[in-house]
Amino acid sequence: MNHEFFKQNREKLLQRMEDRSILVLFAGSAAHKTADQYYEFTPNRHFYYLTGLDQPHLILQITKWGETIEETLFIEASDPVKEKWEGKTLDADEASQRSGIKAIRYIENFQTAFDRLQISSDFQHLYLDLERRGWESPSKGAHKFAREVQEKYPQLKIENAYHAISHLRMFKSPEEIERLKKAIEVTDRGIQRMMEHARPGMMEYEIEAHFDFVLKSSGVKEHAFHSIIASGQNATVLHYEKNNSQTGGEDLLLVDLGATYQYYHADISRTFPVSGAFTDRQKQFYNIVLQANIETIAAIKPGIAFKSLNEITKRVLADGLKKLGVIQEDDELAKYYYHGVSHFLGMDTHDVGDYRDLILQPGMVLTIEPGLYIAEESIGIRIEDDILVTEAGHENLSQSIIKTVEEIEAFMKR
Questions:
Q1: Does the annotation mark 267 as catalytic?
Q2: Catalytically annotated residue among 16, 116, 199, 339
């Protein structure tokens, strides 16, 4: 993506901000692990969405006063000694070229620059990304900054920019769709390699290693999330992540995984027999889930209520289980299907956005992932695709990833 994409994102956000306001966003920093070790850094996704920059410790500041908009990016000054150990840091020219922001200053000047804004003008609003996932969640740099500002400049009203940016991210541009397609294509090749090499008796992590090999050899260093490689009974646990059991001769293997391409995530689930051939009983359950997947995807188009998708899935699954005599009433389905069928997808696997009274609109990207988990028969099945809502209806971005019984068995036999 060139800097125009990120510039347009900033312009859209400014339209949602009050006049006489300041926006401050932090790129973040790597969390400390232990001793002199840190976890790998990944940028705050809202910061990346507005700048295209993925280095730590950066700060974006934008002021809006009438028709006057001023954008400033604060970066770290180069440290020749540190660069001998860790490589060159982002310089002013590169930061400007990638972000489209002309005014580049150094981090040590940020507080002084912020102070001068309060002295020179009567700003009234300060927008920060104040995302917090729970009461016990650790505070981020923006929370600490908000507390300091409230003490030093109480005239500024703190506004949460998180939801405004999240709303913008609900609608994907053509450039973003291309990144998602790249992530899905790598994920497809990884799943194919797993199917090619899976054999009864292998450990789940051995099969997982084939997926990881494809990602690494494709230049993908980041998974969308911790891969789920669940055989037999393990597949009936929704978020099983140990991946350390030995596969049995008649086990189904449920894989839920995804590659990340330039911060955009694939999220795909497939279920296949480790032996290469489904049993008749497995086929019965599998085809119920497949039918739910197909019918739910077929319903996607602009104007459809998001919550109706799960109702379609539940109807198909309940009808199928009743025909098999597994349940007698629709409400018994909750024993075998206990999650929603869809979520947003983008720079986060469970991407940001507001689901309340949500009506589907063009540009949204959703997962469709019906499943059945029959613990008493050690059968867990989930089939998940990534779907773009279009003006005409929808596009299955993962259409090329095989999923019928016949396709899977033929591929594994070959």
A1: yes
A2: 339
Query: CA angle, 372 as apex, 369 and 374 as ends, to 5°?
Result: 155
- Among candidate residues 251, 384, 385, 386, the one labeled active-site is 384
Stated pTM of the model: 0.96
> Are 319 and 333 a contacting pair, CB within 8 Å?
no
Question: Has 163 been annotated as catalytic?
Answer: no
- Per-10-residue mean pLDDT of the chain, 414 residues long, equals 95 97 97 93 97 97 97 94 88 96 97 96 97 91 96 97 98 98 98 98 98 97 96 97 97 98 98 98 98 98 98 98 98 97 98 96 98 98 98 98 98 94
Q: Is 54 a catalytic residue?
A: no
Domain 174-413: homologous superfamily in CATH: Creatinase/methionine aminopeptidase superfamily (3.90.230.10)
d(CA 12, CA 3): 14
147: annotated active-site residue: no
Residue range(s) of every CATH 3.40.350.10 domain in the chain: 3-169
Closest listed residue to residue 286, CA positions, set 317, 257, 313: 317
